[in-house]
Amino acid sequence: MKKLPRFGRLKAWLLLTAGILFAWTNSVGSTELTKHRLYIATADQSEDTKRIIEKLQKKFPAAQYTSALSIVASRHRSNIYIAVGPAALRALLSQSADGVIVSVFTSSQAVREIVEAAPDSRRATVTAVYADPSPVEQLRLIATIYKRPVHVAVLVRDKNTYLVPLLRQAATQSNIRLSIEAVSSEENINRILDRIKDANVVLALPDSKIYNPETVRNILITTYRRDQGVLGFSVAFVKAGALATTYSDVDDIVSQVEEMLNEINVSGRIPEAQFPKYFDVAVNESVARSLNLVIDDNVKKYQSKATQK
After folding, report:
1. Longest dimension (CA), the chain
2. What digits encode the pLDDT tens for the residues 77-99?
3. Please, where are the H alpha helices in 37-83?
4. CA atoms within 13 A on the CB side of 141
5. CA distance 183 to 193
């Protein structure tokens, strides 16, 4: 297939969309929690947060809204707090209220850092549905797009090495050759990219020390020139010039939270923190064509959705 003219259009995309890319970084009828009091806790009143609250209150009409910054001291261990965003999670862990905390719309890296800074007695009461895409589903999406064994490189700092075992296991299952490239925040991004120039695909993890407004344009242009696809971590990243990503909307996350609350209510156990299990896929078809990749129905229909009742 003949490649289309691309560099002028690519640079235009990057200039127009670089700003919105990192806005992401800084997204049953009703569950009857007969044994618990449910609260929706936030630490801001942004439009995005208000939209999330609206969705949560629709799904859980008995839930009470509360500010995470001013929780009244309580000895009710049956309380459950849905913490919307990292500031709410941090604030709840600093309060004296008892109960389970379910963190939503906070990245796995941020959840881990916030929980590790909390008192030991509170750590076991926190679970989460992470904001970032599942690395397992991201690698499966790569395999679905390329339809052949490919070499995937991942840039990893010490803050997200916890993902390495999961990535290695998923890569083996998807017949992917995986290279984990350890980097430091001080390294020059061009030198880092030179070390992974033989990879077919770069899987980007949501780490603002690596992918930020100062580096993303260079990363996308350099990989583009080398015919390397970049699997992003948000729809905005895909619009900016990444090849594709899985992504979860508010309804997807709320459905997963509902399942977690049902488990707590029925069994009394607090589920492990989880990556999103319900998602859609976004593909930049212009980038795919320039990389000579055919985006067929298997890719377009690559999704997972909660069963609607």
Report:
1. 68
2. 689 999 999 999 999 998 866 88
3. 47-59
4. 29
5. 10
Locate 153 and state its tokens.
């490189």
| Closest by CA position to 147, among listed 300, 303, 294 | 294
- What is the Cα–Cα distance from 305 to 279, expressed in whole angstroms? 6
H or E, element range at 84: strand 79-84
Residue 77 to residue 221: CA distance in whole angstroms = 52
Taking the C-alpha atoms of residue 175 and residue 171, their distance in angstroms, rounded to an integer, is 6
Of the candidates 227, 207, 280, which has an alpha carbon nearest to the alpha carbon of residue 10?
Answer: 227
Give the global pTM. Answer: 0.86
How many other CB atoms sit within 10 Å of the CB of residue 250? 17
Q: Which two tokens stand for residue 56?
A: 């949560």
Cα–Cα dist 76/36, whole Å: 9
pLDDT digits (tens, 9 = 90+) for 175-227: 999 999 999 878 899 999 999 999 999 999 999 999 998 899 999 999 999 99
